[in-house]
Design goal:
The chain has 14 helices and eleven strands. The protein has 342 residues and is an alpha/beta fold. It folds into three domains: 47 residues; 178 residues, D-Maltodextrin-Binding Protein, domain 2 (3-Layer(aba) Sandwich); 102 residues, D-Maltodextrin-Binding Protein, domain 2 (3-Layer(aba) Sandwich). The strands form three sheets. The protein has a six-stranded mixed sheet with strand order 2-3-1-4-11-5. Strands 9-6-10 form a three-stranded antiparallel sheet. It has a two-stranded parallel ribbon with strand order 7-8. Helix 8 crosses helix 13. The radius of gyration is 29 Å and the shape is globular. InterPro entries: SsuA/THI5 (IPR015168), UCP027386_ABC_sbc_TM0202 (IPR027024).
Length: 342
């Protein structure tokens, strides 16, 4: 009888042990399945990132990252496609259509798109203003601008707002103390100045360097970036154009975003340190801009990389001033914290 009872107890223990092992095996199999699923999901994300699109407008924004156009066509097995647009309208259309994963855009346009629900984050300002006031006359102060006609571009846009802001901060009324005449672009500003049709004019880089290359004589009345710094206590100027990234890409592939932005930062530093080579690269994209002229314009183009996290104060300050002049230029309000890539 005792042997029979002992046999029954042993049998029960074997069943319990077997059930436990079976349960553990099931749990392990389940974990393996879950891990396999997660691995597959990660693989799907990487596979979905076979290529990305980078879009920049012609001029200093493209120049800031021109090295990457030729030297970084692939990163982490992801093909990088670059495109340069010739107009802001074309750039805006591509952003609204979500065609760009990264782009360099006017900072106020980035804010405007964000405020309208177009999901991009600002990574870093890369162009800190490239506007200069020149004259064929001898002008040494703001006061001497009173009663003069100043030729400029972009009514209601950054060149116009920055000029009016600086005039106002120096007790000059842009509507009553001076006459502002608006032209269509930098080329028209230059041709009018060369022809003697204007004597005081805003001149952006690289057009200012082109005038120098043609031995056109002028007096530099002011560097608008330095004037901005005097008033606002900033270092580089105003964050005119910035690198942005699609929000979806940040959520699904932040490691890749960090690697790309680090490469872009290096590219900006390279432009500063290798202007001649940068000029050669840019001429390949835009053969109307000769490499030597581009190289000489880089210093005045104010190309610097400063992360949005480190420059948030300067960005908000700049956008606030634009909003005071024209709220629609930034989408009616300052963007919230979600605008800044961190």
């Amino acid at each position: 009888m005792k042997n029979k009872n002992l046999f029954m107890v042993s049998l029960i223990l074997v069943v319990i042990l077997f059930s436990g092992c079976s349960s553990n095996n099931n749990e392990n199999n389940s974990k393996k399945t879950n891990n396999s699923t997660l691995t597959n999901e990660k693989q799907e994300i990487v596979q979905a990132l076979e290529s990305i699109n980078v879009i920049t407008p012609a001029g200093s924004p493209t120049l800031s990252g021109v090295k990457m156009f030729y030297d970084t066509t692939e990163l982490d097995n992801t093909v990088i496609n670059y495109a340069m647009t010739l107009t802001t309208d074309e750039l805006s259309a591509k952003l609204l259509a979500g065609e760009a994963d990264f782009a360099v855009v006017p900072t106020n346009l980035a804010a405007k798109l964000y405020n309208k629900g177009v999901e991009y984050k600002i990574v870093a300002p890369v162009v800190w203003g490239n506007l200069y006031l020149i004259s064929s006359e001898e002008i040494n102060s703001y006061e001497e601008l009173k009663g003069k006609e100043i030729f400029t571009i972009g009514k209601g846009l950054t060149p116009d707002i920055v000029l009016n802001y600086l005039l106002k901060e120096n007790n000059i009324d842009g509507e009553n103390d001076v006459k502002l005449t608006y032209l269509s672009g930098a080329s028209e500003l230059a041709s009018n100045f060369i022809a003697g049709k204007s004597s005081i004019t805003i001149m952006p880089e690289p057009m200012l360097t082109i005038l120098k290359s043609k031995n056109i004589k002028y007096n530099l009345v002011m560097d608008l970036q330095k004037e901005w710094n005097k008033i606002n206590g900033t270092e580089y100027g105003y964050p005119q154009a910035s690198l942005i990234v699609k929000s979806d890409l940040v959520e699904t592939n932040k490691d890749f975003v960090l690697k790309f932005t680090e490469e872009f930062k290096k590219a900006v530093e390279w432009v500063e340190n290798e202007p001649e080579k940068a000029g050669e690269y840019y001429e390949k994209l835009n053969d109307s801009m000769k490499s030597d002229v581009t190289a000489k314009s880089i210093l005045g183009s104010n190309i610097k990389y400063k992360s949005a996290q480190d420059s948030q104060k300067e960005i908000e300050q700049y956008l606030e001033i634009l909003k005071e002049y024209d709220g629609d230029s930034i989408g009616g309000k300052l963007p919230d914290e979600g605008f800044y890539f961190k």
